Amino acid sequence: MNGCADHCPEGFLSRLRDEFLVSWDDARTIVGNFHEEMRRGLAGQPSSLRMLPTFAGRPRGTEQGRLLILDLGGTNVRIGEAVLDGKGRAELTSVDRSVLPREIMSASGTELFDFLADRVDHFLGGRGLDDRWCRDLAFTFSFPVEQSSLVSGRLVNWTKGFTGPGVAGEDVAALLRAALARRGRERIRVAALVNDTVGTLAAGSYADPACDLGVILGTGTNACYFERTDRIEKCRDGVAAGEMIVNMEWGNFNRLRTNPWDELLDRTTSNAGRQRLEKMISGMYLGELARLVIGKMMAVGLLPQGTNHAALATPYALTAERLAAAVRSTDPAGAVGIEGAAPVDGAAVGQICRLVAARAARLAGAAIAAVISWRDEDLETGHVVAIDGSLFEKFPGFQENMREMLRELFGPRAAGIQFQLIPDGSGIGAAVVAAMGARTGWGAGSC
Ligand code: BGC
């Protein structure tokens, strides 16, 4: 550690490199801790990994149909129709995308679900489909849900900055059904309630049977995978043999080496103490971590205030998009809002942004390694990871840093792991899950 940590930029940055390092040892520890938490979660014991049964099995690729999809993510709502051709090909047609109004994130459950039902009504009305029109709707709800069947489940708690009252503990499919009925759309049947990771995995494995892990790296982060039902101890008595997708809710994993910036960030969130891995990886938080570091360097005089300091003064003003722009830019300081900075200061800002993002990608890589080695300890087969999310898709260097982590952990065998971007997988895959339908022997409330 450099003695001048708070007094010279080199010392500060050198300490930062240590704080944001994910060493090989750290990664090995994470993999071991993941396995322990997975085991406990599957057994129904207290664990930071909830390991939620989803009642969705493995697609065959032959599922067919035309279904309505409603996809509530962290920042967007999408409505559309998914067409499954029964030969592993699926497409989304006539999609209506909108950014979720900020006030909806804290609105009451009734307001949120009325808003969603309005969007559905508007979508159908725009196509001249009156209230006699009936169709199955696959509902993607990207939050932790304790499912009791394929079509029902209670929200465990909000994540990603949502705080609206009256939803936690409630059956979100029932709330949607009631809101659709209030709009006179009671003929629409909620045919599946699906997490976005589950949709992504189902869409990936519908097209490619080698696909066995679904990951989201966007506003939030999470993963799911196919688990043998005999290993889901908490549902052993109620579920027939086979494979079920387990929604890990890995964003809540907490057996990690955190640094003072993580602690500072966590304290000010609406869900302090929870979603600790998500707060180190996902797009909602990466900019904020960098903003806290940059703000501190400014406060102690190691970076100039710039002429547009206000751009950095507001919590969450520095978004992951701007962080990505800074990493790409020849003027990283300007990209985050510090105008007129000297090149040396720009280089420091660039380094901060890269450190925060590289740690996120390496943690995501270690978490993927943990899930793959849980099912296939010696990497005897190839694996395809279905992934969606803006960090994975767009953040410069993110994929490369994830791959590098896998290479460090698995050596040459890492070449057998493929990343497959599945755009819109959350919606398309929800339709696949709905088309698969409930499996006999996986009764409601059996987990
Ligand atoms: C939620 C997960 C979701 C993930 C990605 C997390 O905050 O808890 O359910 O899959 O974000 O959207």
What's the CATH architecture of the domain at 54-206 and 424-435? 2-Layer Sandwich
Which radius of gyration do the C-alpha atoms yield?
22 Å
As laid out across the biggest beta sheet, the strand order is 1-11-10-9-12-13
Bound molecules: beta-D-glucopyranose
Number of helices: 15
Mean pLDDT across every amino acid position: 94
Strand fraction band? 15-25%
Helix share of residues? 40-55%
Which oligomeric form is depicted? Answer: single chain
Say which CATH homologous superfamily of the domain at 54-206 and 424-435 is assigned. ATPase, nucleotide binding domain
Query: Could you name the CATH class of the domain at 54-206 and 424-435?
Result: Alpha Beta
Enter the CATH topology name of the domain at 54-206 and 424-435.
Nucleotidyltransferase, domain 5
Largest sheet: 6 strands, mixed
Distance between the termini: 50 Å
Q: Which descriptor suits the 3D outline?
A: globular
Extended strand count? 13
> Could you say which structural class the secondary elements and strand pairing correspond to?
alpha/beta
Low-confidence stretches: none
H/E element string? HHEEEEHEEEHEHEEEHHHHHHHEHHEH
What does this structure look like?
With 447 residues, this protein is an alpha/beta fold. It has a domain at 54-206 and 424-435: Nucleotidyltransferase, domain 5. It has 15 helices and 13 strands. It has a six-stranded mixed sheet with strand order 1-11-10-9-12-13, with helices on both faces. It is globular. The mean pLDDT is 94. It binds beta-D-glucopyranose. Beta-D-glucopyranose (BGC) is lined by residues 73-74, 142-144, 159-160, 195-197, 216, 218, 220-222, 249, 251, 278.
